[in-house]
Amino acid sequence: xxxxxxxxxxxxxxxxxxxxxxxxxxxxxxxxxxxxxxxxxxxxxxxxxxxxxxxxxxxxxxxxxxxxxxxxxxxxxxxxxxxxxxxxxxxxxxxxxxxxxxxxxxxxxxxxxxxxxxxxxxxxxxxxxxxxxxxxxxxxxxxxxxxxxxxxxxxxxxxxxxxxxxxxxxxxxxxxxxxxxxxxxxxxxxxxxxxxxxxxxxxxxxxxxxxxxxxxxxx
Length: 219
Description:
Blueprint: H1 2-6, H2 11-19, H3 25-31, H4 37-49, E1 53-57, E2 65-69, H5 71-74, H6 77-90, H7 93-97, H8 102-112, E3 123-129, H9 134-137, E4 138-143, E5 150-152, E6 162-166, H10 168-176, H11 181-186, E7 191-194, H12 196-200, H13 202-206
Parallel strand pairs: 3-6
Antiparallel strand pairs: 1-2, 3-4, 4-5, 6-7
């Protein structure tokens, strides 16, 4: 019965996104870019009926709703963590890198940004993926003290403090712990230019996937 409920397509990914703190429908879509809105809506309703998710109006007075996990939903976290750990250890690097998604990468990086090494003001960081078409090439992270990091795919209108130029595979390799940042920068696959403070602390504030510290069992 647990398998019937949890193992339908995209359900575990949706639960993982909810466990990461994403609460609104449009943000869930951004964290699950390959999942259709109709299927996302259906899965949320299924989880709600099963007592795993609860849907409540937002507190800001807008006609919006937020989704959160119940006690039963939060209890699934060790299962999802174990699946992620297994996948990182036992799915080959090449198989992982065959499914690159710039929106998913940027969304996950946004969540792990450490604002502490950054200046106590708004910092605008532009990522330029030179291998992608124009519509997907440019992304911006807006980091402000005391606020959630914002991800933009449209120019936000602020002066850019730091430019990060790379290709999608290289930054995915760095993020997943498959390749060190220093090596990617030394051979020119990753170029960081701009504010000296942001540039020097790049590796610290960028962070990495939580799987990056796990040893792989296959190449």
